[in-house]
């Protein structure tokens, strides 16, 4: 299993715009073969901090996702709303 944690720092006045973009990305991603879980969380202390937490069956499934049309279309839109570059962690299960 592959776990992805993608941390976003969104411009304060763009948080609601981000929330309008995300539902389609999440819905389409959850339909993908190999997607076990795909969620977006917002930090309770810092509303500008949002994190995608994803579980994938394999690295191949993750790569297919990153090449998917909905991902490729959403990422430039999300990038425009960010205050700084996304922090991305791709992890494998240890225990």
Summary of the model, kept short:
This protein is an alpha+beta fold and about 100 residues long.
Structural write-up:
- With 95 residues, the chain is α+β, with helices and mostly antiparallel strands.
- It has one domain: Alpha-Beta Plaits.
- It has helices spanning 15-30, 59-66, 69-81; strands at 2-10, 35-42, 49-56, 82-92.
- It has a four-stranded antiparallel beta sheet with strand order 2-3-1-4.
- Helix 1 (15-30) runs antiparallel to helix 3 (69-81).
- The protein is globular, with a radius of gyration of 13 Å.
- The termini are close together.
Largest sheet: 4 strands, antiparallel
- Total helices: the number is 3
Numbering strands along the chain, what is their spatial order in the largest sheet? 2-3-1-4
Unreliable sequence segments: none
Please tag this protein with its features.
Alpha-Beta Plaits, single chain, alpha+beta, four-stranded antiparallel β-sheet, Dimeric_a/b-barrel, 4 strands, Quinol monooxygenase YgiN, 95 residues, globular
Question: How are the SSEs ordered, and which strands pair?
Answer:
Blueprint: E1 2-10, H1 15-30, E2 35-42, E3 49-56, H2 59-66, H3 69-81, E4 82-92
Antiparallel strand pairs: 1-3, 1-4, 2-3
Helix pairs in contact: 1-3
